[in-house]
């Protein structure tokens, strides 16, 4: 049998690039034929780390070797992220070589074995992560080695500083610069857009950068993306803030603490969010964005992220120590975390709640309104705008007068225009099997149900909560309504809840 005639390799060793159309999120992947002359001559094996060069650009990518049929021997396929990173075009040819040695991995291995790392070690690791030199498996190893209380205060300070140093740092040339963050674990707690609108309407500067969801059904950036554009660069962000006094943008589109967004991407499937990583992630973003005064909201409840007073005090001390070491004025608030906030859980549903509060609608969720007002009041006093004890009345005035709503509209218009969030085409109520009162709501299970319904990837998916703790419920009454964009996701979420109920009902005492 005659052998197939293989293409003759070019003398420069280059390979014709092809966009394979595979979504590998932000990890760059290159695909090569098993008989590729470059693979053979360089001794490449599957999962090797290689460097791809094109027109003065270079990326580090993970190699996948494919069987005959998908690629010719003189071709290299690129994942979507690798194609974008190289700014490749049809017909381009690139060279592929061994990636440089990753010296900082020795520090990761040291951490895995329980050793303490110093500031230069974290600088090296974070710089390599930000530059895209770590594959996801190495990032996962680093995150795991730092989880479970394996980081002390000095290490957390060093990690925070390394994350700030790896990117840009904005200087607004004035003070105070306000910021606010919730550590999470409480579905629907979307106070940030309301707080930014109130604080900016008061004349303070609040350039808010937010992340997408890590382990929750929605992050602030996911919610705001249903309302306006959030992927602004630093120049556009500055323009919005100088014009309106505030913004609500996605931190991943900026070069502020860029390693954080890479780490978050790997944390998400691991469902991992350690105290040290949480503190370094939150504070590095605040510091890089130029904040001088930050308010940290820590909800505490039996099924929140922070479950006890002991956990709260430990996290509070760590945040305050790291903030103090970095010159950031910080105030930590302990808030109630026994049940979700608002009605919607999921990007678009939470956006509807935010709009209802800002517009002063009669159906606006009272708990979301009151939490946002309390946080805004603390921030107004903390930044010196209001005298102690007067922040609450000022926050109420700005919200009830419509000034906060006008400011929110102006910020959204400056970011690209305000739009109404979509509604999911599929909805199914989940009914109470018996009469009683709502004795407990499991935040984690309810968040899981919303995620299985499609949130946050499907922006309109999630659930709408109809009951609160202590409410009387009749048999057959809707406890919440599932929202989904696909029948399979709707059924999947319903099956999970049937097996793991998130709302506990108890009969009334005799």
Largest sheet: 6 strands, mixed, barrel
Radius of gyration: 25 Å
CATH architecture of the largest domain: 3-Layer(aba) Sandwich
Flag low-confidence runs.
1-9
**Count of folded domains:** 4
Textual characterization of the structure:
With 510 residues, the protein is α/β, with parallel strands linked by helices. It folds into 4 domains: 15-98, Barwin-like endoglucanases (Beta Barrel), CATH 2.40.40.20; 105-165, Transferase, Pyrimidine Nucleoside Phosphorylase, Chain A, domain 3, CATH 1.20.970.10; 178-253 and 272-415, Pyrimidine Nucleoside Phosphorylase, Chain A, domain 2 (3-Layer(aba) Sandwich), CATH 3.40.1030.10; 426-506, Aldehyde Oxidoreductase, domain 3, CATH 3.90.1170.30. It has helices at 37-42, 80-86, 105-112, 119-130, 136-146, 153-165, 192-201, 220-225, 234-244, 258-270, 275-288, 309-325, 347-359, 366-382, 391-400, 403-415, 443-452, 487-499, and strands spanning 15-19, 29-33, 49-54, 57-66, 75-78, 93-98, 178-182, 206-210, 246-250, 293-300, 329-336, 344-345, 426-431, 436-441, 462-465, 472-473, 478-484, 503-506. The strands form 5 sheets. A 6-stranded mixed beta barrel has the order 1-5-2-4-3-6. Strands 12-15-17-13 form a 4-stranded antiparallel sheet. Strand 3 (49-54) and strand 4 (57-66) form a beta hairpin. The model is unreliable at 1-9 (pLDDT under 50).
State the gist of this model.
The protein is of the alpha/beta class and 510 residues long. It is 40% helix and 19% strand.
Sum up the structure in keywords.
alpha/beta, Barwin-like endoglucanases, Pyrimidine Nucleoside Phosphorylase, Chain A, domain 2, 6-stranded mixed barrel, 4-stranded antiparallel sheet, 18 strands, globular
């Amino acid at each position: 049998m005659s052998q197939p005639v293989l293409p003759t390799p070019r003398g420069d060793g280059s390979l014709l690039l092809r966009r394979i159309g595979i979504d590998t999120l932000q990890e760059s992947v290159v695909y090569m034929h098993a008989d590729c002359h470059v693979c053979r001559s360089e001794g490449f094996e599957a999962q090797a780390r290689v460097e791809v060069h094109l027109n003065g650009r270079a990326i580090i990518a993970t190699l996948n070797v494919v069987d005959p049929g998908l690629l010719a021997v003189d071709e290299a396929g690129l994942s979507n992220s690798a194609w974008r990173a190289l700014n490749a075009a049809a017909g381009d040819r690139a060279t592929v070589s061994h990636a440089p040695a990753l010296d900082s991995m020795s520090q990761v291995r040291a951490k895995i074995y329980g050793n303490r790392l110093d500031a230069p070690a974290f600088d090296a690791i974070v710089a390599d992560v930000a530059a895209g030199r770590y594959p996801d498996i190495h990032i996962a190893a680093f995150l795991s080695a730092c989880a479970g209380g394996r980081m002390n205060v000095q290490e957390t300070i060093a990690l925070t500083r390394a994350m700030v140093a790896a990117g840009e740092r904005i200087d607004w040339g004035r003070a105070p610069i306000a910021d606010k963050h919730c550590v999470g674990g409480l579905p629907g707690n979307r106070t940030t857009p309301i707080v930014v609108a109130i604080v900016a309407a008061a004349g303070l500067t609040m350039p808010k950068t937010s992340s997408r969801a890590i382990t929750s059904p929605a992050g602030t950036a996911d919610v705001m993306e249903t309302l306006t554009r959030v992927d602004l660069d630093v120049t556009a962000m500055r323009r919005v803030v100088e014009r309106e006094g505030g913004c609500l943008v996605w931190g991943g589109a900026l070069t502020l603490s860029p390693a954080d967004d890479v780490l978050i991407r790997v944390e998400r499937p691991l469902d991992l969010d350690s105290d040290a990583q949480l503190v370094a992630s939150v504070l590095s973003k605040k510091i890089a964005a130029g904040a001088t005064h930050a308010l940290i909201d820590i909800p505490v409840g039996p099924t929140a992220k922070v479950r006890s007073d002991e956990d709260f005090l430990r996290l509070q001390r760590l945040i305050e120590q790291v903030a103090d070491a970095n010159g950031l004025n910080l105030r930590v608030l302990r808030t109630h975390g026994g049940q979700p906030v608002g009605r919607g859980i999921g990007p678009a549903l939470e956006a509807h709640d935010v709009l209802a509060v800002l517009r002063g609608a009669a159906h606006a969720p009272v708990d979301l309104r009151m939490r946002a007002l309390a946080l805004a009041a603390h921030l107004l006093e903390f930044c010196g705008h209001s005298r102690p004890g007067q922040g609450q009345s000022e926050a109420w005035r700005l919200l009830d007068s419509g000034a906060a709503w006008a400011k929110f509209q102006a910020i959204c218009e400056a970011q690209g225009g305000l739009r109404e969030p979509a509604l999911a085409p599929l909805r199914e109520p989940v009914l109470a099997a018996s009469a009683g009162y709502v004795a407990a709501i499991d935040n984690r299970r309810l968040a899981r149900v919303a995620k299985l319904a499609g949130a946050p990837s499907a922006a309109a998916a999630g659930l709408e909560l109809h009951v609160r703790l202590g409410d009387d419920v009749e048999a057959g009454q809707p406890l919440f309504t599932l929202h989904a964009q696909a029948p399979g996701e709707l059924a999947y979420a319903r099956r999970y809840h049937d097996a793991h109920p998130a709302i506990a009902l108890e009969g009334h005492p005799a």
